[in-house]
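seq as requested:
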Amino acid sequence: MASYKLDQSVKYAKSHEWVRVEDGVAVVGISDYAQDALSDVVYVDLPEVGDTVTAGKQAATVESVKAAEDVNAPVSGEVIEVNSALDDTPEIVNERPYDAWFFKVKPSNLDADLAALLTPAEYDKFVEELE
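struct tokens:
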């Protein structure tokens, strides 16, 4: 049994980001497994609204007391919103990783990008193989 939580409504990247599609907008964050591995998140460096992100490429950075890690975009497109609440309360990434989204993207190639991502069951198997 996994010690981390999976969200059944999202798809996952092997780099531990998740994406949830809401009304054609891709909402991006990091998985419970990733936040647990990082431990206490102290800072999140988000992209700017209007930036173009590319699936599989760095779009943000998350810093913890242990390390700084890249956050890759799981889908390509234009950043239309960032979660500015993370500026003042980055710890919500640890407390509620599936509510503490990082940025929202107007996707440019959503179907193909989603097809390349893992289902929750596939991600669970992937993480089990890492441990």
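The domain at 11-113 is CATH 2.40.50.100 (OB fold (Dihydrolipoamide Acetyltransferase, E2P)).
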